[in-house]
Automatic annotation (TrEMBL), chain A:
Keyword Signal: yes
Protein name: Extracellular solute-binding protein
The UniProt record lists the keyword Signal: yes
Residues in the signal sequence: 1-19
InterPro entries per the UniProt record, alphabetical: Bact_solute-bd_prot1
SUPFAM superfamilies: Periplasmic binding protein-like II
Region (Disordered): 23-43
Coiled-coil residues: none
Length: 445, 307
């Protein structure tokens, strides 16, 4: 008895001690940072910056910068991807007051950091503001979070979406390549008759679904500067969900979990014919389905109404300056160079297949070549066009991890036969509102 | 049931059924056919259950990237384990061997120091009477109940205060504490180290420290090996603490390094194969430690059971 009560009291003390630490720390970091960081002034002497990223091969790119800029030395650290632990680490470090100056943050995670006051506004830097017209419009909208004159991260890469398809199979079977979602559904029936599936709907890739909603000009959140509106079950979102629900219901699309061996195999064996995916997906197919080399092509995404030209986006990130950095000017200079200079963009593309967020970057020489796996089609031309067609109005919420989990759970249920995809969105809508309220984030009625 | 049937010779029918396995059970106590089969079946199922993933890992790491998705997952195609190992060892400037070395350092040295500390602490708690002894022991017991994961974040904040995050010590220092080891060492020392022996040593003029290292440690050896093994595996598999503490890739243990690679598979597809081959390499040291030390460990568990 004695043992248990003591043990419990020890266990109870731990979180208290933690709370004590955490309440005292941000005060120090916050005060020290904000006084210095409010203005975007160059420092007097040489500056050292910390930069955390998970881009493979980023070290080589940073080396180039360090050689050219002896007064602004950047030391780069790599770790797991954002949701794999790096975001949590950023939050821990912000709490402890030792966050790196620069960090990679995906578009869908920026609002979370903004709500937790983890980002410096680099929009106050003249050079940054002047660079706006170099970037594809919607990327700037994503990174400014709808605030006039603000920027919370320099857009790094993007994932405009198009349709990868097996041109050989469509041709052999005399099926026309769909250009609208209606035609896509018709083609799905024809493909099913041959024994295959037109595409795969992956229950866990909620980002892909968000890309579909984005393409349909829907948005999941809005923020008027004071409160958030949650719109997971908006008219557009529900329409897209109902469309896919129908295809799943009629067994016209397969439902393998994405990024698994089964999934690879479904593409490699020719069972699944198309993939509506982002530009970086080009690499995933080439690796996952090596036997189908030369048989793939890329076409613009099917449209909701004929003649429309709209594309979704799946993925992409920014380089943000984290709260407390004392070198706003130098950090923003580096972030601009990394994401606008042809030198850096070419290296990032070659090392890690990053697809640039600048208009000039879309025309890089490396991106105009034909790709062997796609029958020497210059596939990046399709994506460059798609990038210009992405709406600037899609807004991410501050609790995307929770949203993805809840929607994914609902979709998994719908696929195994309980409920529908629109139902899943309605359920996620209410759970998201409660999640926001639980974190004391204002929600508009 | 089994004891009564054990003495009865197998019936003709049973013998007919088991003719394929003549000569079974000649030595030792004989079990009936059914219980024996049932036991074998249960063990067989569990063996398959535990070994299949390792088998899969072994097979997968011998394949080329293309074969990985296209060929039977549980059987070999073109074996190219050597090439895979060479490729994985040189990827990223040869960082994987570095990670393995880090893991061996964290786990090997960490477990050794943890064992010495836990052994001394447990011995002191068992053999010396002093005020607050039970209090100290209960606090340590409380430590057993707090999962290591729950301590990672507070530790990070503490290390941040002294600017010691992202260092070797930020992972090493927390690893050398083993409350469970103290508990085990105390229980074991209480029964395995006779008071009379210590008296005799004291009479012969041996100091307490010398007695501990020359006499008591030998008697406590099986328990210490157990503590070492537990702690070695715990540190080797401890993923969360390094994840939170370390930023510098060259300090990563192998678990964190492979995890990092695995999250980059979408961008660099060849990493998928490297993660598999790396995972195979990373379990080799664990297997070696177990094979070398299991002899002692069995003694430890056995003697603990009898006393």
């Amino acid at each position: 008895m004695r043992i248990t009560t003591r043990a419990v009291s020890v266990a109870l003390l731990a979180p208290l001690a933690l709370a004590a630490c955490s309440s005292s720390d941000p005060g120090d970091g916050g005060e020290g940072g904000s006084t210095d960081a409010g203005a975007c002034q160059p420092a007097d002497g040489p500056v050292e910056l910390d930069f955390t990223s998970w881009i493979p091969g980023i070290e080589g790119v940073v080396d180039v910068w360090n050689e050219e800029n002896p007064d602004i030395q950047v030391s780069v650290q790599t770790g797991p991807n954002g949701n794999g632990g790096t975001y949590q680490n950023f939050f821990n470090q912000l709490e402890a007051g030792n966050a790196p100056d620069l960090g990679q943050i995906e578009y869908d995670a920026l609002p979370n950091f903004r709500v937790q006051d983890g980002l410096e506004n680099i929009g106050v830097c003249e050079d940054v503001a002047a660079a706006q017209d170099q970037f594809v419009d919607w990327t700037w909208a994503q990174a400014s979070l709808g605030e006039e004159g603000a920027l919370y991260g320099v857009p790094q890469d993007t994932g405009p979406m198009a349709m990868f398809y097996r041109s050989d199979l469509f041709e052999e079977n005399g099926i026309e390549v769909p250009t609208t979602w209606d035609e896509f559904a018709t083609a799905a029936e024809q493909v099913r008759e041959t024994g295959g599936y037109i595409t795969n709907f992956s229950q866990a890739d909620i980002n892909q679904f968000a890309g579909f909603v984005w393409q349909a000009n829907g948005s999941w959140f809005t923020n008027d500067g004071e409160a958030w509106t949650v719109d997971l079950d908006s008219a557009e979102s529900t329409e897209v969900a109902a469309y896919w629900d129908d295809l799943i219901e009629r067994d016209l699309v397969s439902t393998y979990p994405g990024w698994t061996t089964e999934w690879d195999n479904a593409y490699n064996s020719g069972e699944v014919w198309t993939w509506n995916s982002a530009v970086w997906g080009a690499n995933s197919i080439a690796t996952g389905a090596p036997d189908t080399a030369g048989n793939w092509s890329v076409a613009p995404s099917p449209q909701w109404s004929e003649g429309e030209q709209s594309a979704g986006n799946w993925g992409g990130s920014t380089i943000a300056v984290l709260k407390g950095s004392e070198h706003l000017y130098e950090a923003s200079q580096f972030a601009l160079w990394l994401n606008t200079s042809e030198e850096a963009l070419t290296m990032l593309n070659e090392e890690a297949n990053l697809y640039p967020a600048t208009t000039a970057g879309l025309e890089l020489p490396v991106l105009s070549e034909g790709v062997e796996f796609y029958g020497d089609q210059a596939i990046y031309d399709v994506f460059a066009e798609a990038s210009g067609q992405v709406s600037a109005d899609f807004v991410w919420g501050p609790t995307m991890t929770q949203v993805y989990n809840d929607v994914s759970d609902g979709f998994a249920g719908a696929i195994s036969g309980s409920g529908t995809l629109p139902d899943a969105l309605t359920a996620a809508e209410s759970s998201t509102v409660s999640a926001l309220e639980a974190q004391a984030i204002p929600v508009a009625e | 049931m089994s004891t009564t049937t054990a003495a009865v010779p197998p019936s003709a029918r049973a013998r007919a059924r088991t003719t394929g396995r003549k000569g079974n059970g000649r030595n030792g106590p004989r079990e009936g056919f059914l219980p024996r089969t049932a036991a074998m079946l249960v063990m067989g199922v569990f063996t398959v259950y535990f070994l299949t993933p390792i088998w899969w890992l072994l097979v997968a790491s011998t394949k080329s990237r293309g074969d990985l998705t296209t060929t039977n997952a549980l059987w070999f195609s073109d074996i190219q384990l050597g090439e895979n190992i060479a490729a994985v060892a040189s990827y990223g400037g040869g960082v994987l061997p570095r990670w393995l070395l880090n893991s061996v350092l964290y786990a090997g040295v960490g477990a050794l120091v943890a064992t010495v500390l836990a052994g001394m602490c447990g011995y002191a708690l068992a053999k010396y009477v002093f005020p607050g002894r039970e209090l100290v022991f209960n606090v340590v017991l409380g430590g057993v109940l707090v999962p290591a994961t729950a301590l990672a974040l507070p530790l990070f904040l503490l290390f941040s205060q002294v600017s010691a995050t992202n260092t070797f010590w930020s992972v090493f220092l927390p690893s050398i504490v083993s409350p469970f080891g103290v508990y085990l060492a105390r229980i074991f020392a209480a029964s395995a180290v006779p008071e009379e022996l210590l008296e005799a040593a004291r009479l012969d003029g041996s100091g307490e420290v010398r007695t501990f290292f020359t006499v008591s440690v030998r008697l406590m050896f099986p328990a210490l090996v157990t503590v070492f093994l537990f702690q070695f595996v715990a540190i080797w598999n401890n993923f969360f603490l390094p994840l939170i503490m370390l930023r510098d890739e060259s300090l990563f243990p192998v678990t964190l390094g492979l995890y990092t690679w695995n999250t980059q598979v979408n961008q660099v597809p060849e990493l998928r194969l490297y993660v598999l081959t790396g995972a195979l390499l990373s379990i080799v040291p664990l297997i070696i430690v177990f094979l070398l030390l299991q002899r002692f460990w069995r003694t430890g568990l056995g003697s603990g059971a009898l006393k």
